[in-house]
Amino acid sequence: MYDVYEIRKDFPVLQQKVNGKPNTFLDSGASAQKPQCVINRIYDIYTKEYSNVHRGSYMLSEQITWDYEEARKTVQKFLNAASHKEIVFTRNATEAINLVAATWGRKNLKPGDEVLISEAEHHANLVPWQMLRDELGCTLKIFKIGDDGSFIWEEFEKQLNPKTKLVAVTAMSNVLGTIFPIKEMAKAAHNAGALILADACQYAVHHPIDVQDMDCDFLAFSGHKTYGPTGIGVLYGKYDILDSMPPYQTGGDMVDHVTYEKTTFEEPPARFEAGTPAIVEAIGLGEALNYMMCVGLDNIVAHEKELVDYAFEKLSGIEGLKLVGTAEGKGGVFSFVMDDIHPQDLAFILNKEGVSVRVGHHCAEPLVHRMGYESVARASFGLYTTKEDIDCLAAALKKAKTFF
Ligand SMILES: *Cc1c(COP(=O)(O)O)cnc(C)c1O
């Protein structure tokens, strides 16, 4: 049984008051709160067994190396990857996508080749491809989404052709909540001879992932959004593809043999983890993913759906409020604007009521412009979000109206 009130007890920050009001934290899409088990694990590592990994031939280093590699196996399980060697630890999702652009992209793309993305991408899955286009002379194609933020198969298919070498798309938009059909898109991409990269930053928070079933070639997500620490992210890549890629950064831990003349490199994933990695953060991420799996991804999905239905019902009843992104089957991210109130002023009033939402372009400036706005407010949910949180948001929005 999923008891959200029991789950909330695992998150100390949620027990804190904000401006003297209960903490209505609706910005999990930017970064999620951490359960006590993750906090404890980090504390324990630093107090009991800290040292560097992959180096020492002493007990502490052996222990922490084991824990670090166990965390990799936890990520493998979370994604249902075929091997733990397909899991590369990065700083965040941004670095994971940049890694693919800098290594696979530089090696494989040439003038005439196309990278296909959607209008709904986060800057992290847009700017690296623009940079690569400018450097290599390849083409960046962008397929359209609907005015309600929906994914439109025909628009995607129209842009897919034999010149497409990579489809790089969000699995769930951080602004609109729209969910993209990655499995079907992967099939179409492969038929066209292209690879597919899924940006699963938001998707991973709310849905079980099976990279083998989706058949994606690359997938990226960030630890801090899946209830883990900051400073750690994941790049999944099919092993043969990873193995064909040159190193990203170079230095310690990723080399096989080095002479003054020449260097040979380790196999993946070590090849892509130059220098001392974010050891404690990786172990903390493993703990967070275990927490999610323990709560149960199916339970998380069901809870999320209930919240989304409830939010639609509550928010659509507010006069002057416009939802930005209303695609069928969307996830727990609600962007909105209110007639006659600048989103910044709106957030200011909500904050006074203890309601934390994010305002701006949400690192997707072209998308927010395409939807017709300069800036929008956004409420996003986590596994600890309650219907009462949505009630508080709705009440605060109604209150804001009385000021203007
Ligand atoms: C948050 C987010 C990113 C970037 O994640 P970082 O942790 O900042 O690297 C990329 N794409 C989407 C859809 C996101 O929500």
Write the layout of secondary structure elements.
Elements: H1 4-8, E1 17-18, E2 21-22, E3 24-25, H2 36-49, H3 59-79, E4 87-90, H4 93-108, E5 114-118, H5 127-136, E6 139-143, H6 153-159, E7 164-170, H7 182-191, E8 195-199, H8 203-206, H9 211-214, E9 218-222, E10 233-237, H10 239-243, E11 255-258, E12 263-265, H11 279-295, H12 297-316, E13 321-324, E14 333-338, H13 343-352, E15 355-356, E16 358-360, H14 365-370, E17 376-380, H15 387-403
Parallel strand pairs: 3-15, 5-6, 5-7, 7-8, 8-9
Antiparallel strand pairs: 1-2, 4-10, 9-10, 11-12, 13-14, 14-17, 16-17
- Ranges where pLDDT stays below 50 over 5 or more residues in a row are none
Choose one word for the global shape.
Answer: globular
Major beta sheet summary? 7 strands, mixed
Helix content: 40-55%
Question: Radius of gyration, rounded?
Answer: 22 Å
- Structure classification: alpha/beta
Termini distance? 44 Å
* Strand fraction: 15-25%
Bound molecules: pyridoxal-5'-phosphate
Contiguous helical run count: 15
How many strand elements?
A: 17
Can you offer a commentary on this structure?
Strand 13 and strand 14 form a beta hairpin. The protein is an alpha/beta fold and 404 residues long. The chain is built from 15 helices and 17 strands. Strands 4-10-9-8-7-5-6 form a seven-stranded mixed β-sheet, with helices on both faces. The model has no long low-confidence stretch (mean pLDDT 96). It starts with a helix and ends with a helix. Helix 2 packs antiparallel against helix 11 and helix 4 packs parallel to helix 5. The radius of gyration is 22 Å and the shape is globular. Bound molecules: pyridoxal-5'-phosphate (PLP). Pyridoxal-5'-phosphate binds next to helix 4.
